[in-house]
Amino acid sequence: MGLAWGYSNSLATAPYLSVPLNKVSNLAKSVRHGNAITGKQVSAGVIPMKRVAVLLTMVAILGGWLQGSQDCTGWAWAASLRQFGQDGYDGRDGRDGRDGQDGTDTSITLDGTPQRLALAGTDGGDGEPGERGQWPECRYQPRRVPYDLQAADGGDGGGGGDGGDGGDGGDVLLYYRQADDLRQVYIDAGGGRGGRGGRGAPGTPGCRCEVRRWRLQVCQEDNCQEEEYRCYDGRRGHHGRDGREGETGRRGQVSLVASGTSLLPERPEQTASFPALAAQSILLSQNRWDYRQGAIARLAPGSDVTDEYREYVGRIEGQARLDWQAPRPLAGLWSETIQLSLQENGRVQFAFPEDLWVTGSSDFQNGVTTYTVTSLVAAQDAIRLAWGGLDGHGRSLQATVIDLARLSDQVNTEFQLTLRASDDAPHSDRRRRYQTHFDGTIPTDLIQRDHNRFILDLGRLPLSISHLNRGTYAQIELTVIRSLGSHRAEQTLRWQGRL
Asked: What was the pLDDT predicted at 428?
């Protein structure tokens, strides 16, 4: 068994490629170990850069062919590569350091006496170093074998663990009478330092070849030739990456409230069911703060806090109620909730569930936001339509669509039609060919509605009556567009057969 495209000890399938087989073996070994072809191989003349892609393809083909031919003697051995020894195991990564603890949030009332507050976050822990890669098992190198050899690789070093993040400083709320009282308070609310990353461990050296080159005579039938074989040293294991340094925790923030003012609980957002909000209004509230710079200058010297602080300037309150004017009863909406959000101007924003189509209007008077609901439709019910039948032919052709959810009094309905017909003979054995004769919106004057039944006068559409004759094979695609306010959905109904 020989190489169909080979002669001598080179691959010479075309004038633009001539590479010794032992070089191919070396490259195959690199690919097997997940290594890229290096610039050194290219610059040394192993392969020109512009032929790398061609050679890689041939290496893949050659490697697959040779794998199934290991029991053959002859020239195929020249491209074989076998490993000896056991690769070293990779070292384990170091454990990450623990994050620091946050400082405690607190609030105090100042009376002019000196005070010290220790609210700093603790430091993050250091990451552990990685474990050194294990040494490979370097076994005895086989001698004078008819194939190339690859010594075992060294183990990669483990990566270092990441340093833990420092804890955040605690926030503090100060009730004060006079500005001088703040100068009596020393606050240490600094963030904890981040832990150091663990060091990556080194990899171990690979095994070395005792004999690097040897020559043997290989024969196929009556053709013998002397071939050179090589042994390649094992790769040294990679050095593990160093762990990430931990982040420093943030400093705590100071909030100031003037004496005589007490902060009440705030509820800027709430949820309520439709019936509950229609029966009783709901109060929302939020404290207002003015954000300023200069906290460090207002406290005792040496205080460690973020320089931006906030001062209480008032309170926002607003009520929300629902005025139900929709045809649908409220009783079946206890499981549906409305999201209420208080705005800066005291108005309340209403957010309805996405699976409900709600229309109405909002009114704001005397601190009360009233939303009047005029329509409510479940989105899935808006597109519960079905074919009611296709009757007649020619100019009397009519299609019927039924609204199964009985919502046609509340939602808008539009029909878009694509009508295709076949001119082939009715009894033709060939696959029918259809041509489009109408593609557009059905005019409103061709649509009749009887409660929840739509009758579409297709025979009055602007197209040749010959395409609507009795026995004509037709395809009808009807897209029903339903809308309510800003909500919109589509449903497509299809029919195919003989008119």
From this structure: 61
pLDDT by residue (tens digit) across 251-293? 999 999 987 778 899 999 999 999 999 999 999 999 999 999 9
| 472 has a pLDDT exceeding 50 | yes
Residue written as token pair 């039938």: 221
Residue 389 and residue 367: Cα distance in Å, rounded?
55
pTM of the model: 0.64
Set out the domains of the chain in order of their start, with CATH numbers. 6-79 (no CATH), 89-262 (no CATH), 265-290+315-378 (no CATH), 383-498 (2.60.40)
